[in-house]
Specification:
The complex is a heterodimer of chains A (about 110) and B (about 110). With about 110 residues, chain A is an all-beta fold. Chain A has strands at about 5, 10-15, 20-25, 30-40, 45-50, 55, 60-65, 70-75, 85-90, 100, 105-110. In chain A, the strands form 2 sheets. In chain A, strands 2, 4, 5, 9, 10 and 11 form a 6-stranded mixed β-sheet that branches. In chain A, strand 7 and strand 8 (about 70-75) form a beta hairpin. The N and C termini of chain A lie far apart (about 40 Å). In chain B, strands 2, 4, 5, 6, 9, 10 and 11 form a 7-stranded mixed β-sheet that branches. Chain B has about 110 residues and is an all-beta fold. Chain B is built from no helices and 11 strands. The relative contact order of chain B is 0.34. The chains are: A mainly beta (about 110), B mainly beta (about 110). Chains A and B meet through strand 5 of A and strand 4 and strand 5 of B.
Chain lengths: ~110, ~110
């Protein structure tokens, strides 16, 4: 079983729409959670960390549900520049490495 | 700061050839990583180095070797390339508990 599972999409949404991605993780010892963004043919870059109480960065909101072992990312007022693949990332307690989901592809349409 | 740099950006090999992918970081990070990314598979860890002088296997280490040359540099070697190693290879570095920074990637094709 994969450590991190994501719906691969693609999600095609109009500009201005609100879109949400979910991600589930299998190991209850998971300690840290992140969303990374990857543009086509580019390297992944950190979008935001996910904190237990939930956190917001502008139009982006991340939520963590430890009981159900899932993480979500909400994007409000989608922009064309939000088109990318969003990677859910988990770090296990005591581990040095990160586990990446396969990514959810978002295309924002004019 | 250049961050994480990788060379080469593109490479085409024939089956059985060998090559070394180079990675360097100028952020004074202790940990460095090599991943491969394939369609539908996501990023998979090949090897990592928690600190200078140490290396550990990741999820998919077979067919690869690594060298942590010093704190800045972490190389990945394919001794006898196979078509199954056609992929995009990313190097990354990280300070404990902080974000992981990636290099721009190497696109490798093995014919």
């Amino acid at each position: 079983r994969k450590e991190v599972e994501q719906d691969p999409g693609p999600f095609n949404v109009p500009e201005g729409a609100t879109v949400a991605f979910n991600c589930t993780y299998s190991n209850s010892a998971s300690q840290s959670f992140f969303w990374y963004r990857q543009d086509c043919r580019k390297e992944p870059k950190l979008l935001m960390s996910v904190y237990s109480s939930g956190n917001e960065d502008g139009r982006f909101t991340a939520q963590l549900n430890r009981a159900s072992q899932y993480i979500s990312l909400l994007i409000r007022d989608s922009k064309l520049s939000d088109s990318a693949t969003y990677l859910c990332v988990v770090k296990l307690q005591g581990a040095n490495n990160l586990f990446f989901g396969t990514g959810t592809r978002l295309t924002v349409i004019p | 700061n250049a961050g994480v740099t990788q060379t080469p950006k593109f490479q085409v090999l024939k089956t059985g050839q060998s090559m070394t992918l180079q990675c360097a970081q100028d952020m004074n990070h202790n940990s460095m990583y090599w991943y491969r990314q394939d369609p539908g598979m996501g990023l998979r860890l090949i090897y990592y180095s928690a600190s200078e002088g140490t290396t550990d296997k990741g999820e998919v280490p077979n067919g690869y070797n690594v060298s942590r040359l010093n704190k800045r540099e972490f190389s990945l070697r394919l001794e006898s390339a196979a078509p199954s190693q056609t992929s995009v290879y990313f190097c990354a570095s990280r300070v404990l508990y902080n974000e992981q920074f990636f290099g721009p990637g190497t696109r490798l094709t093995v014919l």
